[in-house]
Design brief:
This protein has 255 residues and is of the alpha/beta class. 37% of the residues lie in helices and 24% in strands.
Length: 255
């Protein structure tokens, strides 16, 4: 079995693949202070509760945008599963040319998602990832990673309102009943929810024009299920896009 891990700033998404099929997945909180041993206990508990034998895991691949956690999970792969983890980055074959001015600046998770999206839908494609940041990635018809856009995530925006103002509260992000809020909370929810729909729709529109107007638009990430259904231009929702991309990249580097 293959263990795939996507290490993000807020959460770590974990998947187990058997014969290239995702059979189990979890999401845990990303904590920079945790040690390899502490994460190891979490992994063993997850595997045990799912009835999975850790000795069946023969390969590990991970993408990380949190440098302090990368060596922690490299050590976890060695100590818990007795394998050397493949790390998405320079030297690993993705099968996708990166046309960024400096390819090293592109987050590993963005490249992995692009690989999976092109494998499933071809190009041109646009991926909208509703993570800690809301990212937009463009893929050419030939399967080249062209670049994209980065905006603050909706949760970051909500926290900024709470932390940087004296009287605005911390709120739950959800669709309000009306755009015209009659309370502070409903007004904030309206601004965040409908504001992000506008932000996402406009960026997709501008990127799609540059791609010739025929791009497949795919959503993924934590808030995707909530917000993407409001945006007509988003045609596909893929909650495990990065995990699937990790599996594809692993298969391309098996030798």
């Amino acid at each position: 079995m293959l263990l795939a891990m996507d290490i993000g700033n807020t959460s770590i998404v974990i998947g187990i693949f058997k014969s290239q099929r995702l059979i189990k997945h979890w999401k845990i909180q990303a904590e920079k202070e945790k040690t390899c041993d502490e994460y190891g206990i979490t992994f063993l508990n997850l595997l045990s509760l799912s009835g999975l034998d850790k000795t069946k895991i023969k390969s590990v691949i991970l993408s990380s945008v949190v440098p302090p956690l990368t060596p922690v999970f490299q050590e976890l792969a060695r100590s818990l599963f007795e394998v050397k983890a493949l790390i998405v980055g320079p030297g690993l074959k993705t099968g996708m040319p990166i046309l960024y001015e400096n390819p090293l600046e592109v987050g590993a998770d963005r490249v992995v998602a692009a690989v999976a999206a092109f494998s499933k839908y071809g190009g041109p494609s646009i991926i909208v990832d509703f993570g800690t940041a809301t990212t937009f990635d463009a893929i050419s018809p030939k399967g080249e990673y062209l670049g994209g856009a980065i905006a603050p995530g909706i949760q970051i925006a909500a926290e900024a309102l709470y932390l940087k103002t004296a009287k605005l509260p911390r709120i739950e992000i959800k669709k309000p009943r009306k755009a015209i809020g009659r309370t502070t909370v409903s007004s904030m929810q309206s601004g965040l929810y409908f504001g992000y729909i506008g932000l996402i729709s406009r960026i997709i529109k501008e990127m799609n024009k540059e791609l010739g107007g025929k791009a497949n638009v795919i959503s993924t990430g934590g808030f995707a299920a909530t917000i993407s259904q409001e945006i007509r231009s988003i045609r596909f929702h893929e909650p495990y896009l990065v995990l699937e991309g990790l599996m594809i990249i692993y298969e391309r580097n098996r030798e």
